[in-house]
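Model the whole thing, not chain by chain.
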Amino acid sequence: MTEAPATVKRPRIDLGYFRYQLKRSPLTIVGLTMVAFVLIVVIFAPVFATHEPNAIDLRARLAPPTLDHFFGTDEVGRDIYSRILYGGRQSIAVGFFVVFLAGLTGTILGALSGLIGGRTDTIIMRLMDVVLSVPSLALILALAAALGPSLINAALAIAIVRIPFYVRLVRGQALIVREMAYVKAANTFRAGRLHILRWHILPNTLSPVIVQGTLDLGSTILLASALSFIGLGAQQPTAEWGAMVATGRNYILDQWWYSGFPGFAILFTATGFNLFGDGVRDMLDPRQKAR
Amino acid sequence: MRKSVLDIDNLSLEFPVYGGAVSAVNRVSLHVQEGEIVGIVGESGSAKSVTAMTAMRLLPRESFHIRSGRITLLGHDMLALDEQKLAAMRGRDVAMIFQEPLTALNPTKRVGAQMLGVIRLHTRLSEREARLHAIKLLTDMRINDAEEILQRYPFELSGGMRQRILIGLAFACSPKLLIADEPTTALDVTVQKQVLQLLRKKARELNTAILFICHDLAVVSQFCDRLYVMYAGSVVETGPTRAVLSAPQHPYTRALIRALPESARPGQALRSIRGVVPNLTDMPTGCAFQERCDHAFEACSSIPPLFSLDDEKRASACWLCEKEHAA
């Protein structure tokens, strides 16, 4: 005899579906593995590091990779392997900070713009056009320079420049959802704007924002490194990948490991996030689900 | 005498556009009584939906202009009622079902949460009572595992299932009138039949009147008690369904019935009505159908009123009917 369960309580998130999607997309698995690897290594940097990231050892300057210094040492004898582990904390924290800040601000502005329309919409969207009209790297440079060189300011600058992308994305989505019968019905019941925003608009814009955010993580990390590379981001002696590549550039002909390993770390992380982001997009895009 | 639910009297409505106005609704009178299923048929653009939407004041406020007429819904003057009272009536006293069940439910929320939200908005039921009510509504719509369906997201359900959920929900507060705007057009024929039967059964049970908008004469013939045939924004013929369809008086109704694929023999070309619907921004003077009509004569250059026919409820807006009566 089989017993029928009284009520079937379905889980909030169906993990089986994600597992199924992952199986069909090996590149996403690769991306996910890369991202997971980087995150674990970076979060547990103190466990994996062999040296203090800022410990100077003048006896072992610019030493090639050995068993003691896996990735060699820099011009004052700091262990590059350990510095990459700790440096990743900066780069990745910037990535998440920027995506969170730009995503949140952009989503709120975009939803308001799409929902309220009229003058509010015009003002918000023209402001965004102003930001978009300047080439983003030039604007980031200008903002970062104006705010003063530090990693936080660099992150702020990047976030400001990324906001319009989220605003446009969410506004477009809000305009579509606003015309749906269920929102119109809510309107006829005189549902409040806040209710419509929270109950209808935001849930329906979440998945494109997540996709955009995941894809942005990679490029943001790259941008933050680029800013540090030209001296507008992390400052000495903080370990940061872009800054390390920049200093290592002076020694690139003789000590390839100095720039090489941090550079590879950037490449690895950005690639991982991009692959993963593509995969997330395929998973969350309903039009792809049919395949 | 049964109580009247909806009375539209001599309604004329236009949409202002650049350089003129679209006369969408012209002198339409339409009555729905308690518990009655009334159909509106007509081709696209004949103002079926606009008429129904106006009755509920669902058109965007600035987009239209009412030239004349009155709309009385459950004793309220719908053209004068304030927004707050309107909002309270919508969904409780009058419910609507639309053609596309896909966009009527929020894809990111479970069916149960959405149903409960609507039920609790209009009633004082507790969460638990509302849930039981929702399950009852779904069970009445022949949804077997109602409890499980409440846990589902809309995209997990078929179109017929979604439409049954919406119909169930429309009956949540035992409305006096249900406006159904082509509720089964998006469904295939077998599902359509089932949904219509459920709709009819439930309406009879609760004594809910239905204003049923449709362009499928076959569906209308089985479903409605009474019928309004509309053409280019006017009612051209009305009467009990059987009488209108078996003995159509207006040339337009006759032409429509002749054009049904069922009335053609295999191998024979399908009949159609020659010409096109007149431009609503530039209506011909007189009868709107005259240019496509085989029987047009001098009188057609002035607008025909609705002539009452022998049968008390029958009426047709054609000068031919006057001629026959005079003769």
